């Protein structure tokens, strides 16, 4: 006789049900977690007199409530994300801010409303106070400064896609232990801007990365649609397999040398830069657009007064293909337009710092300076800050950034007040050849007039303050003959906005040059009465 197995049904215990519910609970709550980017945090600065945009993540259908001072706003989470706006506020603070989904409340303290500036580019934009030669003195100066100057700092990150947040981001606010992290240029700039706007908090969002070329800052749409930018991305992706093999070989060699050093009781050698950042891939620091995705994209849409762009040194390297420099102007112009598109703000002001004086056989600044000027001229709401009378011939990272900061702050003040700000220095508007004589005509902003001066800060300040000065010679000009030979010239100021040039060695000049060298500290001579230098130019006189 065969017995069939008996199925015994037992009631599931209440304890087991509760255990299963608790086991599944984290899966649900992880979806419901309220999250905001790290730049919405303690000590943050929000842009005054503009809609205050905030965003984050949450559980679908959840109501998000934001309260800042006496302002309130609500929205609903859709597709895991939410975004809302608070009405514009005047400068002020400190305020508390609360963001709640009804279950979780995020509370932020010491929130300020003032001026928000994005500081972008490469190492001269980022260069920290702590890395300067007289760091202790500068840190002491910064500690004694305004507690309403803030900087948002975050770690380097390159990515193949735009990120929701930056890496390890935090606001610093004159903390004695952290003030050395401030950008030297950013801090000088904030101090200068605050002198014209007393009691207005200044927030610098620093997004620069040393050694980067302009291609690191292309947006995804630009890489897909702009011809030369797309070509850069294709070349990079095609190079990945061969570069990966090269990396593997170098890593193998390094590991062998490290093992040999260990066996011999010697220190482990430092990793060469070729393997320091890992193999070439879609998230490598050299990927076109990589640093935009990781360092800039998280801020898209944030209300800001302007962007400072201080970059171009790496694109001036002489070991790059000439075609790369030839595309710099169009790529910078397209990049600025692409950032504005991502910010949904076609008039977002950009202040471009033209490269200062520097001398090295490894770099050629002249064509990049011309490209910077060309890009700015092609755009609305963009201004060029001429800095050839600053810099250090022997150091690509000059510490003397006060003059640059002052000029940037003056330009920003024009943006704030709504006055014409795009042109700061005199611009050449006409070059007329009359036999061996060339007459140059300039447009001078406002009521300023041309003056002959020098790169001496003391003399510039005296001139700006109206002190009578001994006439200085006009230098830095060249006239080029039909054979392409450049000749020194005699130069004379005429009236308020003209310069007369001639050379006994050139009967019929075909081109006029001004400051066509990397280091022009000893030859720059033409300013306006407000202390802004005329930028470099090279003009064909036969057209």
From TrEMBL:
SUPFAM superfamilies from the UniProt entry = SGNH hydrolase
Give UniProt keywords alphabetically. Answer: Hydrolase
What Pfam families does the record point to?
SASA (PF03629)
Record-linked Gene3D superfamilies: SGNH hydrolase (3.40.50.1110)
A GO molecular function assigned to this protein is:
sialate O-acetylesterase activity
- Start and end residues of each Sialate O-acetylesterase domain: 115-255, 303-398
Q: Which GO BP terms, alphabetically?
A: carbohydrate metabolic process
In Swiss-Prot or TrEMBL terms, this protein is called Sialate O-acetylesterase domain-containing protein
The organism of origin for this protein: Ruficoccus amylovorans
């Amino acid at each position: 006789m065969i017995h069939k197995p008996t199925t015994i049904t037992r009631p599931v215990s209440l304890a087991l049900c509760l255990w299963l519910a608790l086991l599944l609970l984290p899966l649900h709550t992880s979806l419901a977690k309220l999250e905001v980017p790290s730049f919405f945090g303690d000590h943050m600065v929000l842009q005054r007199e503009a809609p205050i945009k905030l965003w984050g993540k949450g559980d679908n259908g959840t109501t998000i409530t934001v309260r800042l001072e006496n302002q309130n706003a609500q929205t609903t989470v859709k597709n895991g994300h939410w975004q809302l706006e608070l009405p514009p506020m005047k400068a002020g603070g400190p305020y508390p801010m609360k963001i709640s989904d009804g279950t979780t409340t995020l509370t932020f303290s010491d929130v300020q409303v003032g001026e928000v500036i994005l500081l972008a580019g490469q190492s001269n934009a980022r260069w920290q106070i702590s890395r300067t030669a007289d760091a202790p003195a500068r840190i002491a100066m910064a500690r004694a400064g305004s507690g309403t100057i803030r900087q948002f700092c975050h770690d380097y990150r390159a990515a193949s896609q735009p990120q929701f947040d930056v890496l390890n981001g935090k606001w610093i606010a004159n903390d004695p232990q952290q003030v050395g992290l401030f950008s030297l240029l950013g801090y000088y700039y904030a101090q200068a801007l605050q002198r014209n706007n007393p009691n207005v908090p200044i927030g610098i969002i620093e997004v620069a990365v040393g050694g980067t070329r302009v291609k690191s800052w292309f947006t995804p749409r630009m890489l897909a649609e702009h011809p030369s930018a797309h070509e850069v991305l294709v070349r990079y992706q095609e190079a990945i397999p061969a570069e990966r093999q090269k990396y593997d070989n170098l890593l193998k060699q390094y590991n062998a040398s490290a093992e040999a050093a260990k066996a011999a009781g010697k220190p482990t050698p430092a990793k060469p830069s070729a393997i320091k950042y890992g193999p070439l891939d879609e998230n490598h620091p050299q990927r076109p657009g990589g640093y935009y995705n990781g360092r800039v994209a998280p801020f898209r849409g944030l209300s800001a007064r302007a962007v400072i762009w201080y970059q171009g040194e790496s694109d001036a390297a002489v070991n790059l293909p000439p075609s790369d420099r030839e595309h710099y102007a169009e790529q910078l112009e397209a990049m600025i337009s692409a950032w504005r598109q991502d910010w949904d703000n076609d008039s977002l002001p950009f202040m471009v710092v033209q490269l200062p004086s520097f001398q090295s056989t490894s770099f050629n600044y002249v064509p990049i300076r011309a490209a910077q000027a060309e890009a700015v001229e092609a755009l609305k709401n963009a201004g060029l800050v001429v800095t050839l009378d600053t810099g250090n011939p022997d150091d690509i990272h000059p510490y003397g950034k006060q003059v640059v900061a002052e000029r940037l702050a003056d330009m920003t003040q024009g943006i704030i007040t709504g006055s014409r700000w795009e042109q700061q220095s005199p611009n050449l508007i006409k070059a007329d050849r009359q036999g061996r004589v060339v007459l140059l005509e300039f447009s001078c902003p406002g009521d300023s007039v041309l003056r002959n001066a020098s790169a001496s800060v003391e003399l510039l300040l005296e001139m700006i303050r109206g002190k009578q000065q001994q006439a200085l010679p006009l230098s830095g000009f060249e006239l080029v003959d039909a054979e392409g030979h450049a000749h020194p010239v005699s130069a004379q100021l005429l009236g308020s906005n003209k310069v007369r040039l001639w050379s006994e060695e050139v009967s019929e000049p075909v081109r006029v040059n001004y400051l066509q060298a990397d280091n022009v500290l000893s030859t720059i001579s033409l300013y306006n009465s407000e202390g802004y230098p005329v930028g470099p130019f090279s003009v064909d006189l036969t057209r």
